[in-house]
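Record type: monomer structure entry
Structure origin: computed from sequence
Chain ID: A
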Amino acid sequence: MSYDFLLDFETFSKASIETGPNRYASDKYAGVWCGSWGVKSEGGIWGPPRITIFDGGVAGAAAVEGELRRQGFDVRPRSDFEATFRGARRRVAHNAPFERAVLRWRFGLDTPVSTWSCTLARSTRLGLPPALEGVLGVLRAPVRKDLVGNALSKKMGKPIGFRPDGSPLWLDDFASVVRCSTYCVSDYGGQAWLDATLPELEPAEQGRFERQTIENERGIAVDWDLVSKGRSVVRMTMQWANQHLPTWTNGAVTSLTQHKQLIGWVRRRGVEVESLDAETVDLILDSMPDTPEDVRRVLEVRRSIRTSTSKLEALLGRRMPAHTGAVADRVCDLTQYGGARTLRTVGRGFQPLNLPRAGDVDVDAGLAALRRLDWDGMCNAVAKEARERHPSNNAGVRTYRTAVATVIPTEVVSACLRGTLVPSKKRRFGAADYTGVEFRATLALAGQMDALLRLREGADLYCDLATVIYGYLVSKKEHPSERQLGKQGCLGCGFGLSTPDTFMAPCAQYGLYISRELAQNVIDSFAKRFDRVPVLWRRLHSAAKEAMANPGTWCSAFETGVSYCYLPNGLAGLSWLQCWLPSGRMMYYPAARTVAGIYGPSIQVMSWKNKRWIPQILSRQVTVENV
């Protein structure tokens, strides 16, 4: 008999869920409270939920099972669960990598990833919220998440205390385990509805999901000695910074951990802040060039230490235990499928896709000095001209250089973070750099053939644009500031930034502070040098608007190979704007509608950002960037 199998676990572990499914489930103190599951025959519907108790807490499994049977639940033994799971043709779960990790490390059940269907991946494929409660709410499902039970499950999933020997204490009283079990059954209903509602991933997308799952389960090797040395440098830098803080702040702050005193001192220096979280510090350092030098110095030190610490601690938190065999001491679950609307892979934990650039640091020299814990050697690994802080004002671009060598040794640690990831024995890493791939794709879509030919000849288009901006021949070696502005012009304007304000904001994030007049000059120069790209902006946006005005009709953006179609009553009654890409991929914008904008009718769609379902205007910039 061929059937599908749907499952959901409620678990506990001493390791944080933030360390990833495999580290969480493989922990020495990890376990499973219960599992709800059910089957569906081929072409049929999901049957009623069954529940298996794996850990009954202080009362024992038998007592919990008896209470659940009294309440009318179909309680099955572990042997039934395992036998039914093994015989399934297809296995379904919301966040299948998590359920796979639990089965692998707690039950010894390892099945081919090709037999799994992940409703979380299928949700993000359509631009819907990844969280079960979020997607059920957006799709107006008849079954909703039990939020009270969810809160209890989270409490039961982590220790509530520790014994003298370090072993954890759990919230495992009889009433809690029973309530957690009934919550698990309610989740089964939501997942069954979701599986019946959402389309399966296309074969190509399913293949990407499977490869990424396998990579995350296999993990990557780490140079733990280098990680240890990096942590030592962070501690040394913290001690050094705390020694100098009283001097830098005139005695107002004596430790970087004195958050209230630090905020008060920053305010007294004329910078109004409510907090000094990472986002606020980035804003001050990257977008406020008039920040007092003493404030800038202290915040740069703090940011540098925080960046290095967070990356190194993320590696340590994901280090697989010694008992995990082939993956012992490796780091798993560093990426996630479909973390963005465009289905771009995103990093998790250590964030291997978002590591700091080397900048002015000689990485080879820095790594050698770091291994020796040679403070002076790390200072000498920084380019000589970058060792002193200095504002420069070249070609109308105001930039700041960080005093790496004399102020922040942890900057060298940050520059060397890539060196912590190493290949396995008898293996080598292959490195590929898709130089300028975003801009090349924009030029190809726009049909800007003269620029593509220049790229084939090895030309530097950033210098080309800078030459148009300034009116004299710009070279990479002799005019670095001018070329940097040319680069921002190519990338920013290539993605539709067509007003001074929208162009100046991202420039400031890269430490480039320019006037409105210069910003307008960059935009005009870009339109002159790459005249077909602005046409691309208009064609894509016009095609999307035309599709909204003609439901059910595919509207092409002429020669770009991009088409849009608007479905006012699509999946689960939502309106959808679909975008067909030249690669054959489809992109989805849920809850699309036309709204009144400043410059006329605009397209509004819904997006999942920062764990919130929020409206977003589909501007020219967003349209081009997504494509």
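Annotation 1: Residues 60 and 174 are 8 Å apart (CA to CA).
Annotation 2: The mean pLDDT is 88.
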